[in-house]
Amino acid sequence: MFLSEKIENVLDLVNCKVLKYAQSPTTDTYVLSESSMFVFQTHFILKTCGETTLLHAVKPMLDLAREYASFDLVDV
User: Fold this and answer.
1) Cα dist. 74→7, 8, 31, 44, 64 in Å?
2) How many Å apart are CA 72 and CA 31, to the nearest integer?
3) pLDDT tens string for the chain (76 positions)?
4) Exposed e or buried b for every residue in 15-48, given b needs 16+ CB within 10 A?
5) Which of 23, 54, 10, 60 is nearest to 36 (CA)?
6) Would you state the pLDDT for residue 17?
7) 3-state class of 74 per DSSP?
8) What is the pTM of this model?
9) How far is Cα 29 from Cα 36, in angstroms, rounded to an integer?
């Protein structure tokens, strides 16, 4: 399973859908039904507002970051 599929599976768990995906040499960009997410080689940004179910995806997303990119948690 590709990383993008795993990301979509995590988002499905919190009722969030990928509306659009774009890739550049430095960034994978996701326009989500509740927010946006930007994945860089050294970090990712999950941007949301309000009290959305998307906040429940933070831990699983950090787990994916550790698994695929050896990320260490610095700031949430």
Assistant:
1) 20, 24, 24, 11, 15
2) 25
3) 677 888 888 888 888 888 999 999 999 999 988 788 898 888 888 887 766 777 788 888 888 888 877 777 656 6
4) ebeeeeeeeeeeebebebebbebebeeeebebeb
5) 54
6) 86
7) coil
8) 0.73
9) 8
**Which amino acid, 35?**
S
Q: Which two tokens stand for residue 67?
A: 């698994």
CB 21 within 8 A of CB 29: yes
Which residues lie below 8 Å from residue 71, measured CB to CB, with a gap of 6+? 43, 62, 65
Q: Which amino acid is at 64?
A: L
Q: Which of 36, 31, 50, 43 is nearest to 68 (CA)?
A: 43
pLDDT at res. 59? 84
